[in-house]
Amino acid sequence: MPQVLPFSAWRYNQNLVKIEDVVAPPYDVVTEEEISYFKKKSPYNIFHLELPESYQKAKELLNEWIKSSVIVNTEAPAVYLYELEFEFLGRKYLRKGFVALVELSDFNQGKIVPHEKVFAKVTEDRFNLLKATGFQFSQIFGLYEDENLKLFSFKPQKRILYQVRFNDQVHTLYEIKDKEFLKLFSEFFKDKRIFIADGHHRYTTALKYKEYMQEKFGSETLKDFNFTAMYLCAIEDPNLLMLPTHRVYKTQAEEFIKAFEKFVEVKKELSQEEAFQKELLESEWMFVTQDKCILVKIKKEVFEEIKARDPLLAKLPVYNFLEVFKKVFSFGEEELKEKGKVSFISDVKEVLDTVKKERGIGVIFPGVSPKVLKEVALAGKRMPHKSTYFYPKILTGMLLNEVSGKDLRVF
User: What angle do CA 356, 357, 363 make, to 5 degrees?
Assistant: First the structure.
């Protein structure tokens, strides 16, 4: 199984910047307007590096920030405890995870297990940024198995680095340099697979970068580019919230709904308030137009046909919908994605608001357990693109990881 190690992270110098001004959400869940907002917030906001004007500009800025101590290296290796307090549908959560280095390995080795497809265009951009800067500015979200949450039974010495309030969430980052715990931590992962929850493109990019760097520096194991920084959570943690990713299609709503009549049963119409509060069953979807929300259920015979072809993926409501989608339109969702005619949204209220503003048709799905993700991944299958959304996201810029070809300092 992959080595999981402490590392010497780079982080913002709080004597020079306010941490709440320089962190941001992951680059792949923000709009152009939000990117502009965060960049204007501070000349040192992480998006100036993560989403730069050019790769060369990112390199120049990074060097300037290091020279002027805007970002500093923590020197002694550590593991970082990341706590996230949030509320969802009236319930309070406290999700805990660790940020550490995970040894890179190809998917076919079975140590790191994916569940979604990747697109070459996205990895090319991230690869060019990595080549230019030699830094990772955000972490991949990984899951591990720990049925009894044993890892959290240890009580290591730790110190708080940051506490950031962000969108009604509280993000708290602790540094753990306790050598006894660091050894226990690495030992714990020796027989653990890591399942990718979020960040398939970043992981694929890291693999490509590793190959590129090994041609320059050789394949010595403890070089920094042989590892990637990950945020690691237990699949069994009850505070791990996996939401579905809903859709909004830029098309005529009534025609869209009519096209599905052969494959679904209309259960009832709901008000927007009811729609927002409704917990959908596995076989239900909700079509959202500007003036109504229609609760539908996939017909039994249609579901049984899909299930007969793939019983495992049929556990995913999004998969079943997309299989019907192909029957209805004779092409896949990818064609609409390439034309910019589909938006992927995790928040039900945002779906309702988007449809109100932009017309079109929204499709809302029920959630599934993270354990289904594990089943799919272990079976070597791939969920449809944008099937899951782990809520909430950790912040970009809390920790930076250098992968420039240096030897790792482990303990």
Answer: 50
Q: Which domain holds residue 184?
A: 4-241+392-402
- Measured CA to CA, the distance from residue 72 to residue 370 in angstroms comes to 36
CB 209 within 8 A of CB 403: yes
Specify whether the CB–CB gap between 237 and 96 falls below 8 A.
yes
Distance from C-alpha of 143 to C-alpha of 233, rounded to nearest angstrom = 5
Q: How many CA atoms, within 13 angstroms, populate the side-chain half-sphere of residue 228?
A: 29
pLDDT (tens digit, 9 = 90+) per residue, 328-378?
988 888 888 888 889 898 888 889 999 988 889 999 999 888 888 888 888
Residue type (1 letter), 221: T
Q: Indicate yes or no: pTM above 0.90.
A: no
Same domain, 108 and 155: yes
Domain count of the chain?
2
C-alpha to C-alpha distance for 172 and 174, rounded to whole angstroms = 7
Query: Helix count (H) and strand count (E) of the chain?
Result: 14, 21
Alpha helical stretches, state H, 287-383? 300-309, 317-329, 333-338, 348-358, 370-378
Q: How far is 346 from 242, CA to CA, in rounded Å?
A: 10
Is 182 found in the same domain as 166?
yes
Task: Give pLDDT, residue 411.
Answer: 64
